[in-house]
Every structure is written in C-alpha cells, then in structure tokens.
Amino acid sequence: MTYLPFSPDPRPLGKSGIMVSPIAWGMWRFAGDDVAAAQAKVEAALAAGVTLFDTADIYGPDNGEPFGAAEALLGRVFAAAPGLRERMALATKGGIVIGTPYDSSAAYIGAAIDASLKRLGVERVELWQIHRPDILTHPQEVARALEAAHAAGKIMAVGVSNFTPAQTAALQHFLPVPIAATQPEFSALALAPLHSGLFDQAMTMGLTPLAWSPLGGGRIATPGTAREQAVADLLDTKAAAHGVGRGAAALSWIMAHPARPIPIVGTQRVERIAEIGDALKPRWTRAEWYAVLEASMGERLP
C-alpha cells in the first residue's frame, strides 16, 4: 500500500527560516483568570510536540472578555513561567477593530503590534498576521508598516489571514519581506482553498498555510447532515485503522495535502491537548484521501 508523503518533523514557516511543528495550538477560547490552569494548557501543548502557538488581539470579546484578553492571559503565563516563551514560535494577529470592522492603515498596524507585544510581555513575535483584509488601505501602505516592524525586530515574519490569493499577491508585490504564512479556513468540510487557488499560490510562493477551524467548527465531531455524516464515516474508518479518534484522522487528512497545511487545534481541555500528537499517526492513500474529498463535495470527481 502506497501512502501520500508526510513528515512529522518540524518544518520551515514559509521562507522565514523559523522552524515550527506540523500542528499548531490556537487560543481563540484561551480565557479566564486562572493563570495556573492557563499555564497547564500551554505546557500540555508543548508536551504534545506543539511549538507554534497562534493567538490574536481580538480574542477576548467572543468569550465575554475585553479586547486583548487572550494575549494578556498568555502574558501572565510568561510572567509566571518565563522559560515557556523560548520553547515556542509565537504568532498573533491584528487589524480587526470592533465596530469598524477592519483597519490596516500604517498607523493602526504599528500601534496594534506595539499593543500586542505589551500585553504579551515580549519584545517580539515570530509571526504577525493581518487578521482580515482591509480593502480601504492600499497594500503599499500595509507593506510599509509591516516592513518597518520587521526592521525594528518586533516581528520576525509576516503572515496574512483570510486573504484571497489576489490580495496576498498584491501585498507581496510591495513588501520586500517574503510573506511566510497564509491562514484560511480549511477542513474536510470547508474546501475553498483547494478551489480558490490559495493552496496553489502557497506552493508557488513558498507560503505555509495555517488552517483554522480544522474540525469544521465542530461539525466533524457532531455531523448534522448526510454529507457531514458521510465524511465522518470515512474518517472513522481511517481512525480505527490507526487507533486514534475521528478528530485526529480529520487533522491528518488536512496535513496530507502537498501544500503542507498546519492545522490550528483550538481545544482548551488539557486531556484533549495531550492527544494532539495522535494526528501524526494516520497515513492516507491517494484513493482514501480523494474519497473524503468526494464525500465532502457530495459528488464524484470527473
């Protein structure tokens, strides 16, 4: 049986030279005032082999907390256990402004980066990403702000999130620093990057895709339609063959694509975080991978 190629080893984040794990841990729901509990989650992710940690300045209000709350909580964890910071590649995002909704002007980007660094209690982050494209800011202005932050040593690499391939190309045209990462929604139930040209662009430009909502916003765990159930059944077959859960099989399906997407796992339960490494176990044949794709599309490929 011939499996699609996959390596569980650390890989470069785009062309930045930064090495990261094949799975990331996301902090959209990283919340609360219990620093010890928050530290336990970070330590569990590191113990599971995760080195790429993804947060954002907007993480907080969805949890009933202030803007910047998730970054501030992580900053308190770093203050309590300083050694954790140097064991990870830290990524954050900015550009979403409640009520605006987006601002990528040079002035805002500069202020947002400084504010994130202050909340996190760090001098730099490995990756800073524009969270969503601001269509009212010229990409040349965005590039100027990002280049300045990079030159100042505040950000080691630049990424984009929820950008179209054309928006990414426009920014790169004006930006002398190579864009390292692109963050789309991608899962066995959300296939847009396969058809929009985003993964093709990632492979062409050497971008690392970071897949958010890799478990389909919970729909893979609890299917609600015949299409979702058909995907879940195929994932269950693969999971059983490798002694892992359905979620691990879903993550492994993502990672089998040649663009080498890195799924961002968002679980906040320590016991589930400890199982992240299970996703490195399943291997897919070409026929098995395409079967999941066809089930998700609800039609046979021509």
TrEMBL record:
<dbReference type="InterPro" id="IPR023210">
    <property type="entry name" value="NADP_OxRdtase_dom"/>
</dbReference>
<protein>
    <submittedName>
        <fullName>Aldo/keto reductase</fullName>
    </submittedName>
</protein>
<dbReference type="InterPro" id="IPR036812">
    <property type="entry name" value="NAD(P)_OxRdtase_dom_sf"/>
</dbReference>
<dbReference type="Pfam" id="PF00248">
    <property type="entry name" value="Aldo_ket_red"/>
</dbReference>
<feature type="domain" description="NADP-dependent oxidoreductase">
    <location>
        <begin position="23"/>
        <end position="289"/>
    </location>
</feature>
<dbReference type="InterPro" id="IPR050523">
    <property type="entry name" value="AKR_Detox_Biosynth"/>
</dbReference>
<dbReference type="GO" id="GO:0005829">
    <property type="term" value="C:cytosol"/>
</dbReference>
